[in-house]
Structures are given as structure tokens and as C-alpha cells.
Amino acid sequence: MKVMAQMGMVMNLDKCIGCHTCSVTCKQAWTNRTGLEYAWFNNVETRPGQGYPRRYEDQEKAKGGWIRNSRGRLKLKGGSKARRLLSIFSNPKMLNIKDYYEPWTYEYDNLITAPLGQQTPVARPKSLLTGKPMKIEWSANWDDDLGGGPANIEKDPILQKLAEDVTTKVKLAFEQTFMFYLPRICEHCLNPACVAACPSGAMYKREEDGIVLVDQQQCRGWRMCVSACPYKKIYFNHKTGKAEKCTLCYPRLELGLPTVCSETCVGRLRYLGLFLYDADKVAEAAATEDERDLYQAQLDLLLDPNDEEVLKAARASGIPEDWLIAAQNSPVYKLAKVYKIALPLHPEYRTMPMVWYVPPLSPIVDVLTETGHDGEEAGNLFGAINALRIPLAYLAELFSAGDIEVVENTLRKLSAMRSYMRDINLGREPRPEIPEAVGMDQESIYEMYRLLAIAKYEDRYVIPAAHAEQAKDLENMGCSLDGVDLGANSSGPFGQSSGNPVPVTIENFHIMKDRQTQ
Amino acid sequence: MSSPNILLWTVLPYIAIAAFVLGLVWRFKYDKFNWTTRSSQIYEGKLLRIAGPLFHLGLFAVIGGHIVGLLVPQTFTDKLGLSHQAYHLGAVTMGGGAGVATLLGISLLIYRRRTSAMVFAATTRNDKTMYIFLVATLLAGSSATLSSAGVLGEEHNYRETVGPWARSILTFSPHGEYMMASPLAFRIHAVAAMSLFIIWPFTRLVHSLSAPVGYLFRPSIVYRSRDNQSTSGSREARPGWEKVKY
Fold first, then answer.
1. Nearest to A49, CA basis, from A123, A158, A134
2. 4Fe-4S ferredoxin-type domain: which residues (chain A) (predicted)?
3. Could you tell me which of A42, A161, B200, B227 has the fewest CB atoms within 10 Å of its CB?
């Protein structure tokens, strides 16, 4: 057993209002540069919808992720290493900028410099890639809130898959505008396909916290990672010719601060914490035969941080004590493994993604309420979950390789929590049979409620700062953080809100200056 | 030997070698960040799909042919019992094929660069300069091949002139006069190629030196420790990187 620590995230989709604050603040922090205009390390897509880049879930096109070959071994879907090297001169699976969108700006200058005339001057859109006037036809959120209507939405690869499998009833139900938001960042997978596809060895997984990064000095622009990532979360900086990706805001995490997307999330739906996992078993788990067993295989990789054996092995592999404590308090571990209400996004890609999602329940409650039922009564809710199998099938395609039971159990727990807590809030006698019906006890369902509904800052983000031995390295960050506890109870120098600006080291090569947006 | 000839065939080769080697060392040390293919595939993929492999694979064959042609002495193939006719037939057919592929490839690539607005906008002055030297070298080389085969002008056995000259340079006992005996096309090709080697380290051509062969032999998933690098904000300024101001 080789115990490794992994920083993970959970997003509670019930709370996402699709405001895109995470995307915008992430962009401001990380990709507000020429060459990455089109890059959204964090994006929020409306589902059903095509996602970003368009139809990224169609793995038959870009061949992302892994497959299990006939000998039961893992293989990149894009082909063998030799084949990848042979196609290095032109990656046949590479995405085109049109799969994202052509970035543009407006001729703002014209508004103030246009000569006096009959017409009001206008700011025409101009391509940032060619500098020529262009027609805006697509962008990162063109189908936001089901924009573009059925013509766009029907191209959702999951809807298309469901249309093949299930009866037309599915389709009709979707036409009654079922919709939710899916914020996405890099999954920082345990078995990252991008890392395996990088010919230069520039992509790596950090031993300490499992963050997947690109070494900008070593990347040679072979662009294999772009197509190999099934989530299409590696962006090719077309000015520098190098791959860039979500860094999980590691300069912030190292200080014990949450990522920019988490910190600025209006709905407070993100959770950050540690997983301990068995690195020796990753390849085996990812090669599980049946796709539908992959979720369970992934859960089995996560180790119990309270188990003495695990702790012993963790200490043996050099994980520091404060990290073990953080792992024990980890909200993501609780949501994913203890309560089992957070699910991985597309486990069938076999990358073992480490950003988990609590599937949305709200549409079901709303439908019940609209039809005159008590939307939060346990019996009604449980019944409704079964009745509304259609969204379940969609959710199952996203979160459990199509296994509806997994999603259903999750939603049942969430609805049980609502019903149980309602009795308490209304001063009625709590009903222990509600948690029992979903295999939980009163105490754990109450704790789950605290974590999901109260969701205090220090409960959502349990981030151990960088190694104490390396504290000296942080000295030139502007202030000495020695002896300052930035861990669980973050009443440190930064307070509960961000407070002072945190220096973030984005290094600028001097050439970038010459390449500023025209 | 007149002084311009000494300059061209005895001095220039060493300048080219020095510029190539030292330039690469300098670039690797100070500008790893820009050591990249600067791929434009994200802008345009359809033409590249044909042109990219055509040019690169053709060029590999051309380079292979040069290594054999320049480094293997004629006496060696004579000993093997390979006749001049057979050798040249092989060299011209294979080299000709590779040359055609390379020229076709680069023509398509330049056409693509000029006609795709995005690719053209991303083309730097450095790229354009490099293209001039590269195309000049390729064209001169192709015409030299044709001339050696007797298609253009007189038939010429470059293995008695260019080959020995190249080996004399590499063994540090330069004999410029060998080269002077070769036809004009060969001499132009040699000068163009030496110029190309001089600018090589300062162009995007450097990506040719990072062919990722090691990929075949490394484990799929790469792990790196944060310990080995200095952490954020504290790492030593890398050469060529601007100091972050905050």
C-alpha cells in the first residue's frame, strides 16, 4: 500500500445558480492573457447542452481518456505511444479553435475617434486571432440556460445517447425544460490521460497533493494532452505554443487558502479537502472491466484516514501529521466516501477524476410542488425520484456511467435529509425512520445537513498549508506566515473573506509584453 | 585557394558549427520557455494533416540520405561491392522521392501559412526569415540532386567532392579545395545549409532537437515532488524570466 494525498473538490450542484462568478474570477486570475483568450480553466455549462468545448463528451471524435483493451489492460483511447509519436506532426485528434470559439474584441477606439457623421459610431467585433472584422457565431456559453433552443441542445452527446437507448418519453420530458448547471475545472485525476499522453514528460502529478501541472519550461507544444484529456481541460496557448491548465490555484492552496473559484463562489457550493488513496491500486481500479463498477472502484481507492493501518502507511510515505489531521477532517472525503452523495464526473473515462459532484435534486422538488404535492414530504419525494427516472438517466450518464441506482441512492439521501430536517425545523418530533430508509442514522444525517446546508467556511475548506519544513520558502510572499494557523479555522491574517490581495506568482516572460492584445 | 573560398569552405563551416552548438546551449539555458514547436494546428488542421507529415517525414528521409552520403566514404561502398551506378540510382530515386515529398510538404505549409488568416497572423518575422533560409537550402539541394544525376547540367559524383569535404571539416582537417571542385548548385546548397545552421538555434527549428524519443521508455504517469522545485514565489528567478513585481 502506497498512501498518497490528493487535493479534491466537491461541488454541490443543487446550489449552483449559474452565475459564472467562478469562471470570471478564474479568468481574471489566470487566463486574462493573449494566447489564452479562449481558455476557461473553470467554466459553467448548462446541462443538457453541448458543453465547452462543443461536444467534448463525444469521445469517438477526440478520443480522450482510457479504454480497457482485450487483455484487460489500460490503454489510452487515442492509441499507443508509438502511434502518438508518429502522429506528432499533425495530431489527427486535435481540436480546432472553432470547437471552442474565435476570441474577439470590439473596435472601441472607433467610438471616440470616429469623425462627426450622420450615424452613431459603432464598435465592430474584431477577431483577436486575425485582427479582422468577424461575425460572432459561438462563444464559451452560447447555449447558456438552454440558449439556442432544441437545435443546439439536441447536440448534447448524452441526450443523443439516451435517445438511442430509451423510449421517446425521455425526450419529451427534456422538452419540458429540465436544466441544471455544471461547473467544471480540471479533474486532477488519479490516472490522468493528459500526463500519459505528454511526449515531453512536461505534465506531471505532484506527489504531495496530486495537482496535475504542466512544466512550462519542458512543454514543447506537441499538443497530445489537448486531445487526450476526455474533459478537454488542457488549453493550448496559441501564442506561447504551450499547454496550460487549471492549477487548482496551487499558490493559494499552499498557503491554506481555497482556490479562486471556491473563494468567490456565490452559492458557496464548493468544498476542498484531502483524500488519501492507495497509489498502487490506481491502474488496477481504472482497468475495472464493467464501466458501471468504476465508481465503486474509485471509492475503494480512497482510504479511511481514521484507520490506524492507513495512518501508519501514510506516515511511512512521508505525509506530515497536519496533513493527516486535515484528511480526517476532509469535507470531500465525507461527501464522497462516508455519505456517498458526491459522484465523480464521467467515471467511464477511467481517469479517476477527483472533482466530485453532489447531483441536483431541486428540479424534482419543484416539479412536485408545482403539481400540488408537498415537495419535501419524504414519501412524496422518494416516490417522485422513482417516477422522474428521466432526469435520473441523464444524471446517471454524467456521474455513474449510466448506473441509475447510484444516482438514485444519492438523491434519496438528499431528500431524506430535507424531510428529516424539516420536521426538526418545524418543531415536530424527528422521525428516525427517514434516515434509516436510506441507510443512515440520525446523527450522520444531521452532520451531513450541517456540511451541506450550514456549510461554514472552515468546514467547506480544510486545506493544510504547505509543509512546515518549507515555511521558509514562503518568506518572500510579502509576509512571514511562520506560526500562523491558516488551517481549519481560518481567522488568520486573511480573515474569513479574502482580505488583502494574495500575491500570485504568474510569471511573465518578457515576450508576453510584445504580444498583448491588439 | 582564394581568400573568399577559404572563408566559405574552411572558416564558414566552423562558424556554422560553433553558432549551432553554442546557440543551442544558450537557448536551452536561457530560453527554454520559447523552445517549442509553436504549433498552429489549433488554427488550421485540414491542410496540416497532409502537409505536416509529408514535410517532416520527407525531411527525415532527406537527413538520413545526407548522413549516408556525406559520412560513408566511397571506398567503403566500393568494398561492399556496390557499383557507382547502383549507388547513384538508389540515392537519386530515394533522395529524389524524399526531396519531392519535402518540397511538396513545405509548399503546402507555406500556402497554408499565407492563406489561413489566423496562421498568417501568428507568423513572426523570425519565422519568415527562417522560411527563406530553409526553402533556399531545400531548393538548392534539390537542384544539386538533379544535377548530380545528370538531369541538370553535367553528371557529378559528389562523393568525390562534397563528401570528403564534409568529413574533412568534421575531422578538423579542413580541405576546402574538395568543395571547389563541385558544381555551383552544390556550393550554393552548402552555403545555404551552413547559414541555416547558424540561424537554427534562434528560430522555432529548435523543436527538432527535442524529438520525444524518451516517451517510449518512461512510465505513463509522471510524478514529481514539490520538494525538488522551489515553491511558489520563492523559486530562483529563471534566466530570461522577468521578475514578478508585486
1. A158
2. 7-35, 177-208, 210-239
3. B227
The DSSP code for A67 is E
Cis peptide before A192 (omega within 30 of 0): no
Distances in Å between the Cα of A105 and the Cα atoms of A22, A41, A137, A169, A235 are: 22, 20, 14, 44, 20
Closest among A410, A22, A14 to A183, alpha carbons compared: A22
CA–CA dist B238, B25 (Å, integer): 15
Are A10 and A336 contacting, i.e. CB atoms less than 8 angstroms apart?
yes
Q: Which of B53, B226, B242 sits opposite A89 (nearest CB)?
A: B53
Contact B33 A508 (CB under 8 A): no
Question: Long-range contacts: B21-30, Cβ < 8 Å, 24+?
Answer: B22/B201, B23/B198, B23/B200, B23/B201, B23/B202, B24/B200, B24/B201, B24/B206, B24/B209, B26/B201, B27/B201, B27/B202, B27/B206, B29/B239, B30/B239, B30/B240
In sequence order, the β-bridge partners of residue B224 are A206
C-alpha cell at A461: 475548506
Instruction: Compute the distance between CA of residue A470 and CA of residue A299 in angstroms, rounded to an integer.
Output: 32
Pick from A492, A496, A497: nearest CA to A479: A492
Tell me if chain A has a CB within 8 Å of the CB of B93.
Answer: no
| Global confidence as pTM | 0.87
Nearest to B117 among A130, A242, A503 (CB): A130
Residue A220: which of B36, B230, B240 has the nearest Cβ? Answer: B36
Tell me the pLDDT tens digit for each residue of A69-126.
999 999 999 999 999 999 999 999 999 999 999 999 999 999 999 999 999 999 999 9
Residue B231 contacts residue B24 (beta carbons within 8 Å): no
Q: How does pLDDT run along chain B (246 residues), one tens digit per residue?
A: 688 888 999 999 999 999 999 999 999 988 889 999 999 999 999 999 999 999 999 999 999 999 999 999 988 988 888 888 888 888 888 999 999 999 999 999 999 999 999 999 999 999 999 999 999 999 999 999 888 776 666 778 888 899 999 999 999 999 999 998 899 999 999 999 999 999 999 999 999 999 999 999 999 999 998 865 544 444 555 655 565 555
Task: List chain A domain ranges.
Answer: 1-101+115-468
Best CA proximity match to B138, nearest among B178, B96, B175: B96
DSSP state of A133: B
* CA A73 to each of CA A60, A488, B215: distance values in angstroms, whole numbers, following the listed order: 20, 41, 19
* A53 upstream amide cis, omega within 30 of 0: yes
Write out residues 77-96 of A within 8 Å (CB-CB) of B: 81-82, 84-85, 87-92, 94-96
Burial state string for A136-162 with b = 16 or more CB within 10 A and e = fewer than 16: eebebbbbbebebeeebbebbbbbebb
Q: Which of residues 159-198 of A touch B (CB under 8 A)?
A: 191-192, 195-196, 198
Q: Which chain A positions have a beta carbon within 8 Å of B117's beta carbon?
A: 127, 129-130, 132
Angle at CA of residue B138, ends B170 and A90, nearest 5°? 105
Distance from CA of A417 to the nearest CA of B (A): 40
